[in-house]
């Protein structure tokens, strides 16, 4: 996916939804079925990163600022809302503004529905460095960042931005999406597969939303 975004002249893949739906469904099944190799991998990663988080208090504090303020779902949704307001201000783009807001709302509902359905417990530590609410899978931070950054990056691409500004937008989006996921694992509030699920489900929502938007644009008079 990164290669597709970085190539400014390469057309977007026609059917990315299937490529994202299959691993998303597989991971969801493995988590729901408590597949032991996946659980063992998650526990090994979590134990290692938790030791680091407890030992490196300065890094942990910085990570908390990033995850609670910079890449927090509320911050991401406010960013999305701000862009939607700007698009709405340009009267010809009101449809895209509504599409943007609806997609973010649908993503939030999908996220909560999957969380409730799987009901996966979060990691529990005798010496936690942070806390979080709701079920673990998928990571809301990772999914929200993926949806918002993915949608905005697509809009930037469609607006004709190329060259250094395009590459800068791609780097910023990738750093944000990967960074927020890693902060959740570092703080011990998510298993790694929760974050992976957030990335996959978020990318799937973006792919479906873009497909819907493109079809709507083709049939619109």
Automatic annotation (TrEMBL):
SUPFAM superfamilies assigned to the protein according to its UniProt record, in alphabetical order: Acid phosphatase/Vanadium-dependent haloperoxidase (SSF48317)
SMART domains, alphabetized: acidPPc
Domain of life: Bacteria
Pfam families: PAP2
Gene3D superfamilies: Phosphatidic acid phosphatase type 2/haloperoxidase
UniProtKB keywords: Membrane, Transmembrane, Transmembrane helix
TM spans (from-to): 96-114, 134-154, 166-189, 195-212
Domain spans labelled Phosphatidic acid phosphatase type 2/haloperoxidase: 97-210
InterPro entries per the UniProt record, alphabetical: PAP2/HPO (IPR000326), PAP2/HPO_sf (IPR036938)
PANTHER family for the chain: AT30094P (PTHR14969:SF13), SPHINGOSINE-1-PHOSPHATE PHOSPHOHYDROLASE (PTHR14969)
Name used for this protein in its record: Phosphatase PAP2 family protein
